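[job 4471] stage=fold_predict status=RUNNING
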Amino acid sequence: MRMRCAQVLVFTTISLVAVFGSALPTALYPFFPQEAALKGTSRGVVGLIYGLHALSQLFICPVLSKMVTHVPAKVIFIAGIALTGICTILFGLGGRISSQTLFILVCIITHSLSGIGAAASDIMAVIFINTTFPNITTMLGILEVFCSVGVLLGPPLGGALYERFQYEPPFLILGSLYLILIPFSMLTLPNQGESQEVQPGGYKHFLQRKSVLVMSLQVCISSVAMTFIRPIMPPFLTHQVSQIHFNCYP
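[job 4471] inference complete, writing structure tokens
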């Protein structure tokens, strides 16, 4: 499989966005629960903050699929990067807030908007692959690999930055690096294929298929199984490691 120079640039841009876009929401997992606990936030609220990121994506994805017929895909893609990067920085700056209620409100708003931006860049990335590459399934599979790399790198990178700089700098660093991809995207992504004809009523017909319902249920169950430990695992591991350290060094 040989790609032209333009295709290489497009896929490189989309892959970088996929890695950073997957790493940003996972980078806070190692340290956010205990930092939120210091402000009096319960673990249930922490789980709500995590969940709203995905919930915002759930509701915005159908809207974005309709918007692409009126707004260029490149504009939506870049706007998604900007929204996610800015909200990541604002999420980190929210640590300066002393009020518990205001802190929770800022976290909910910024994390939800970050999910909307991530959904925008993800959907437009699929459109760019569809209009740029002939072997769509292969390229989508490779793109999923980069998303997995981002999920893999996010927690250790966030934890390392937190250990070195504490709460705020990890969000500032990662959010700023993500925003750097905006000019790169403006230069490398094509302007063609931005208006796609979408057949009306497609969702209803799509969801009526039994195979789609089975796969959707499988994805939901597997996602719950993988994500329910996010609010509770970091405090548990921190407590366990502290006990081990105390027992080894009395």
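[job 4471] summary: The first helix runs from residue 5 to 26.
[job 4471] exit 0
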